[in-house]
Amino acid sequence: MMSRFNKPHNGLLSPLILQGITAGWPICLGYIPTGLALGLLSQKAGLTPTEIGLMSLFVFAGSSQFIAVSMISSGAAPLAIIVTTFIINSRHLLMSSSLSVFFRNSGKAVLSLFAYGITDESFAVNHSRFNEGNWGISQALTVNHVSNLVWILSTIAGSYGGQFVPAHAFGIDFALPAMFICLLIFQIKGFAYMVTACIAGIAAVIFSLFISGSSYVMTASILAAAIGAWFHHRSKQ
Known about the structure:
This protein has helices at residues 15-44, 49-58, 62-73, 78-89, 91-99, 108-116, 120-132, 137-161, 175-187, 191-208, 215-236. 73% of the residues lie in helices and 0% in strands. With 237 residues, it is mostly helical. The longest helix has 30 residues, at 15-44. It folds into 2 domains: 16-168, no CATH class; 188-237. α10 (191-208) runs antiparallel to α11.
């Protein structure tokens, strides 16, 4: 049966779209300075506005894009860049698996469109809204693709403006870590979440001493998620 949140609407923007925009605008606000920073760094690495725009369109993953740009500027081999970004983006498998329970009745085309737009930020927003209820595919897709559009435009604008800004100015290198820190703080809603975050941070630092590349991030995340899930399960008993 169609709920009141899924009824068709003849207006310019349906209530579902407006709900998605309302939920996604904080992501967009965070994407603007971060996207500008990425565009600026890309311009310093020798990429054109068209190239960074296409990267944002086809990859749409801030952390891996920052790393790819850094590797490009250092002259890394294409295969090394591809493998590194693949490892970093493999965390999306975990996020997609977590969200899949809310899309059991959706077709492959819808799932593919939604999967394309999953990022750390949109996952955090959509996952919490799905758990709260009264949230559907229309709102979730809006969150994903409005933020996607803002990200693409911001990176292109940053690339055009990069020629006027000196490298490393205004602390732009810290823009992405700052956004992740804010998202982490907003997601800590209990002691189990705090424990998981601390374990992930400590494990990542320790693993980085023994594991080359960026795979230590995924290893620490999996370990922390497993311990956090066990701790959360035990706390409910």
